Amino acid sequence: MSYINKYNCPIFNLKELQFNLGGNIKVINGINTLSVNNSNGKGRIRYLNFDKGLASINIDLLLHKNFSFSLNNSNNDMLQFIYCLEGISLHSFENSIAIRKLDELQTAFLKSDANTKNIIHIKPNKRAVINIISIDKKVYFKNETNTSYLPKSKLLELLNILNSNEPIYFGSYNLKIGEYVKALLKTNTEDEITESMNFRAISYFILANHIEQLFDESIQSINHYTLTATELKRISSTIEDIKTNPQEQYSIEMLCHKTRLSPAKLQEGFKALSNRTVSDFIRHIRLKKALHLLKTTDLNISEIVYSIGFTSRSYFCKIFKAKYGCSPKHYKKNKKLTATISTLKLL
């Protein structure tokens, strides 16, 4: 089996990674980005040290060879929360032949120190999207201000888990973390400061969701989903379709047929990913689209109503006011007034 040379993943320095994969490194507002486009493969790795003892690494690569790397480059006690959004990822301990697969949409919690080294393997010829939140225990847990970002009541119990002898825990599937990882794949090149803030904020959300899941599954023995990874992917794809085409006339029966799921599993998946029922999610997306059209077009209310899939103008006006605090007509008038004032200021 042919491997690109294994290296110690540089939590604070991408130069070793660049040595193995090639590419160029840029550092903008704390975000270190290694971009690769050569014979080894294509993609990028972005790293941010987003708090004392905390680092977030987002991997988005399509490689042409098997690739293995160690998660710890020091003898410090480290914790890693890992999430695989896409691709074939495997885990093993250093000097061990036992390898375990990390499924797409699955979480994993790893510990490493001077005696325990965790190795991640990425298979070639398929896009791999992986997020790693790395924690230096000694630094992070001595920084009391960090606890303000985490559920304090759960943090104390979580520490007991982290101090256990088990160096690895594979969790269940988690769609919420998947949505956050997708958000990290986007880049705002027009506002680099905002980009850094978003990266930091999203990394906190990912960490908080990992901790909540670990708490639920390890302490309360709660499994987040009864759905399989394949079923979750079908629901995720359906949700993206609704976002793209909110004007379609969706029904539970139609969506069940599309996803090949029962109504109960369909609702479970929507609730897990959007924290909404199917009908509430469709209504929410349509209202967001309506707001966008009111802001950016000169379409009248009736045209907007029918362009987003509603059939009743009165019903649309009622739920729009309930969500945004004013009627669509009033919102449209205020938008025109604001535009007029802005124009006068320029004169």
Automatic annotation (TrEMBL):
<dbReference type="InterPro" id="IPR009057">
    <property type="entry name" value="Homeodomain-like_sf"/>
</dbReference>
<dbReference type="InterPro" id="IPR018060">
    <property type="entry name" value="HTH_AraC"/>
</dbReference>
<dbReference type="GO" id="GO:0003700">
    <property type="term" value="F:DNA-binding transcription factor activity"/>
</dbReference>
<dbReference type="GO" id="GO:0043565">
    <property type="term" value="F:sequence-specific DNA binding"/>
</dbReference>
<keyword id="KW-0804">Transcription</keyword>
<keyword id="KW-0805">Transcription regulation</keyword>
<feature type="domain" description="HTH araC/xylS-type">
    <location>
        <begin position="236"/>
        <end position="334"/>
    </location>
</feature>
<dbReference type="InterPro" id="IPR020449">
    <property type="entry name" value="Tscrpt_reg_AraC-type_HTH"/>
</dbReference>
<dbReference type="Pfam" id="PF12833">
    <property type="entry name" value="HTH_18"/>
</dbReference>
<dbReference type="InterPro" id="IPR053142">
    <property type="entry name" value="PchR_regulatory_protein"/>
</dbReference>
<keyword id="KW-0238">DNA-binding</keyword>
<protein>
    <recommendedName>
        <fullName>HTH araC/xylS-type domain-containing protein</fullName>
    </recommendedName>
</protein>
